[in-house]
Automatic annotation (TrEMBL):
Chief site of localization: membrane
Regions crossing the membrane: 269-295, 318-342, 362-384, 414-432, 444-477, 498-522, 732-757, 782-804, 824-845
Pfam family of the protein (one): FtsX
Descriptive protein name: ABC transporter permease
Length: 859
């Protein structure tokens, strides 16, 4: 009880200092809990959606996906004949069955040809309006579509694009473009996360999406009372002889969840990873806080020991304070995490993913995880200062001297730090010289961990040297005030090292990712300059294939010398050595592709691969199977016949674009794959006639005005798009890393605040002999700046080393250019100085307000 009372008294005696540490715990716990609540809410939203929209049993073609997504690579969904619907209706236990047609390989535009597809990556779905839809949606305006000139839209899409009854809508598919007017607006009874859904009547959907009558993409089956979904599925499968796929509502819902699982897992683990970084940075803050509090209470601890308190009781007293800090910070963090989750939901709504607070999900494990993490991390961080406090002898404490083993412990610490840093440097060297990226990645990960820990451990030793250099360069110009600021930073190298290390972690990651991102852009740009000979690239940024109508529009564009089509077909290859390679891809292109992409060959000419019944193979595949120019490979095309193709060229593996691709001409492939099974183009390339580049560029955009889903880029545009994509990703990562940097700033504030209290008497004496308030505040600000720059130098240097090593691994994949983004590095370094100034504002202000006589009288 005495220990608890002492701990409570000390805890509330330092409320302000504890509050800063509690904020670090709060932010870290909030990020963890917010991530868990947010992803759990997304799971709940999709669970409700899939459960509400999935029929009891779904019957679909064998090659349809389990989610019901039926669009194939020829742009048309695989179908089953109307006779199957009749067979299903005869199955015992079937209450009702209806045929449906739907596709997500569509683009829907308004009357001005503006794309109505979601910006969040959610699908655009066009379907016929049926009983299953009527079960889960309510028509709020107008009526269901009747006839080819009517279409209905979901309420969310109508709101986002301000669609009203009577507005013209165009549905672009591989079959053609179908135009209709909005006849109705329907709202989901559950949350629609962001898909844009349009409804036609059944005959119109068949003609617009499939191009033929009397077929369905799915059959939705309702079970009779008393018949389970599993029983119904079994009966249907037996009736149809296994010729078609049958899935229960649960299986369809599970498949839908599996589709979004990858996205949600990436988001969850990435955000938890950044929360872990914030926790790591918070550990330094807590260690520093309790180390300084213990140091300031050295005489008090000595008195406690002198009157009979044991080492264990002193230790326990500090740990109880940490426990209180952990509990307070964690409880507040859990509450803040729920608020953060709501904020993330609102943010996702801004980019097109709608999540309702009605589905907010807080499972019991979330607050438990937050509390346990926050408390455990806080107590563990306080264990070292607590242990150090318990080791101080009563007489040493009463004399106000530290633990006698401090000097020896410092030497041991320095030795361990040097060993860890050296081991980390060696593993980074092994990563940089690895022959395979997979092997090098393991060494890189180990090297990052070892060098990070090594720099943290060796921080006090580095502080002595780095702070002196920074002082000589930056602080000496401020005269005696600058020299005092330098001495204050050097007074306790362990404290300076820990404070700088907190900032170092976040900035090291920023520097590493900046180097990797810049190197990727520079390498890709270099490859484009070397390899790409085409003037224009036409593609769908969402990955959709290019419809035949759009291809014809491109080919009809004036001012073009040639247009290259590019398709990818699945195939099974049998080589002369008797081995069969399954799930290989053949890249079928127009012969002009040899001009558009200057791919290096190690044998033969790539242009010859586009001759009739010819192909190319990559260097590695050729070596593995003993192929050479003139060898014959048997190619069994999916949805096509077998072909015997002659190898005319062997392409180098030392490339980035289309690495490992096998080429053949579209004319060759067309001999063995029926026209209705031929995949649509993945991408188009076009080259302008001499001197017509600008005119052809504009003409291409005009030609594709009716097809807004496709983007026309010249090489400059393509490079900018690549740079923007990587830049957006990096900006998102930097935003998440800002959490760790904020915690590090709190650490600087806390360290300075406690340092000011620790030096109260000293400050009073300096003020008494003539130091002005302005000079005092400047001294504290300069001390803060030099600590921040110390952490920045360590972090940026470490991060650039990691980034340069990572680029060596990327070079094994063809990304050979190392680029250091010096403007970004310089901006971060200068920004760190401002971080130091900002962190010193409150401590400097408080120091300047001290009463001189009271400060001198302080013991």
């Amino acid at each position: 009880m005495t220990v608890l009372k002492t701990s409570m008294r000390n805890f509330f005696a330092h409320k302000g200092r504890m509050a800063l540490s509690a904020v670090a715990v709060l932010l870290s716990v909030a990020f963890v809990c917010g991530t868990l609540v947010f992803t759990d809410t997304m799971n709940t939203t999709f669970d409700k959606l899939f459960a509400a929209t999935s029929p009891d049993v779904t019957v679909s073609p064998k090659d349809a996906s389990d989610t019901g997504e039926t669009t194939s690579d020829n742009g048309k969904p695989p179908v089953l004949p109307a006779s199957v619907l009749g067979e299903v209706r005869k199955v015992p236990g079937v209450k009702d069955a209806e045929g449906t047609v739907f596709s997500s390989s569509v683009t829907v535009v308004d009357g001005d040809k503006d794309n109505l597809s979601p910006t969040s990556g959610a699908p655009t779905i066009v379907s016929n309006w049926g009983k299953n839809d009527a079960r889960t949606m309510t028509i709020t305006k107008g009526s269901a579509p009747e006839g080819p000139d009517q279409i209905m839209v979901d309420a969310d899409t109508a709101d986002k694009h301000h669609l009203e009854l009577g507005d013209e809508i165009g549905v672009i598919t591989a079959v053609g473009t179908h135009t209709a007017k909005v006849s109705g607006i329907a709202a989901f009874e559950v949350t629609n996360p962001g898909a844009a859904i349009f409804y036609l009547d059944l005959p119109t959907a068949q003609r617009a999406l499939v191009g033929q009558d009397g077929v369905y993409t799915n059959i939705n089956v309702t079970a009779a009372p008393g018949v389970t979904h599993e029983q119904l599925k079994k009966a249907i499968s037996e009736r149809l002889g296994g010729a078609y796929k049958a899935l229960t509502a649960k299986e369809t819902a599970d498949a839908g969840q599996e589709d979004v699982k990858g996205f949600m897992d990436v988001m969850r683990y990435a955000m938890l990873g950044f929360a872990g970084i914030a926790f790591l940075v918070g550990i330094f803050l807590i260690i520093n806080t309790f180390s300084m509090l213990v140091a300031q209470r050295t005489r008090e601890i000595g008195l406690m020991r002198a009157i009979g308190s044991s080492r264990r009781q002193v230790n326990r007293s500090v740990l109880v304070e940490a426990l209180l800090l952990g509990v307070v910070g964690s409880v507040l963090g859990v509450a803040a995490g729920v608020g953060l989750a709501v904020g993330l939901m609102k943010l996702m709504g801004q980019i097109g993913m709608d999540l309702s607070t009605d589905d907010l999900t807080v499972v019991w494990t979330t607050p438990v995880v937050g509390l346990v993490l926050g408390v455990v991390v806080t107590v563990l961080a306080a264990w070292l200062p607590a242990r150090r406090a318990g080791k101080i002898s009563p007489m040493a404490a009463l004399r106000d001297s530290g633990a006698p083993a401090d000097a020896r412990a410092g030497r041991v610490r320095a030795l361990i730090g040097v060993v860890l840093t050296g081991a980390g440097g060696w593993t980074l060297y092994l990563a940089a010289t690895a022959d395979k990226a997979k092997d090098g990645s393991a060494w890189l990960g180990l090297g990052i961990v070892l060098t990070l820990i090594g720099f943290v451990v060796i921080g006090p030793l580095l502080a002595n040297g780095v702070v002196r250099v920074l002082g000589a360069i930056l602080l000496r110009v401020f005269g005696p005030v600058g020299r005092m600021a330098e001495r204050n930073a050097l007074r306790n190298p362990r404290r300076t090292g820990a404070t700088g290390a907190a900032l170092m972690i976040g900035l090291a990651l920023v520097a590493c990712l900046s180097v990797v991102g810049s190197s990727m852009v520079a390498s890709a740009t270099d490859q484009l300059d070397k390899s790409v000979g085409t003037d224009f690239i036409i593609q769908n940024d969402a990955g959709q294939l290019i419809t035949p109508q759009a291809v014809q529009a491109v080919k009809a564009t004036p001012g073009l010398e040639h247009v290259t089509e590019y398709k990818i077909l699945d195939a099974e290859l049998t080589t002369p050595d008797g081995r069969t390679s399954k799930k290989r891809s053949i890249n079928a292109a127009s012969p002009s592709y040899a001009q558009d992409l200057r791919t290096e060959t190690v044998a033969g000419k790539l242009a010859d691969a586009y001759r009739t019944d010819s192909m190319s193979v990559p260097e590695g595949f050729a070596k593995d199977h003993g192929l050479k120019v003139g060898s014959t490979v048997t190619v069994a095309f999916k949805n096509g016949d077998r072909a015997r193709l002659t190898v005319r060229a062997i392409t180098s593996d030392d490339v980035v674009l289309d690495k490992g691709a096998m080429y053949a001409s579209i004319a060759t492939v067309a001999k063995y794959v029926p026209a209705d099974k031929m995949p649509l183009d993945q991408i188009l390339f076009a080259s302008a006639e001499d001197g017509q580049q600008d005119a052809a560029y504009q003409a291409l955009k005009d030609s594709l005005h009716d097809y807004p889903q496709y983007t026309v880029r010249d090489q400059t545009d393509y490079k900018e798009a690549l740079k923007d994509q990587i830049g957006q990703l990096l900006n998102m990562i930097y935003g998440l890393l800002a959490l760790a940097i904020i915690v590090a700033i709190l650490g600087v504030v806390n360290t300075l605040a406690l340092s000011v209290v620790e030096r109260t008497r000293e400050i009073g004496l300096m003020r008494a002999i003539g130091l002005s308030r302005r000079q005092l505040r400047r001294m504290i600000r300069l001390e803060s700046v030099v600590i921040a720059l110390f952490g920045a130098l360590l972090g940026l240097g470490l991060g650039m080393g990691w980034g340069a090593t990572a680029q060596k691994l990327l070079a094994l994949e063809g990304l050979t250019v190392l680029e250091i983004p010096w403007p970004t590095i310089g901006a971060v370094f200068v920004g760190s100085a401002f971080v130091g100034l900002f962190a010193a504002l409150i401590p400097a202000f408080r120091a300047g307000r001290m009463n001189v006589l009271n400060a001198i009288a302080t013991e």
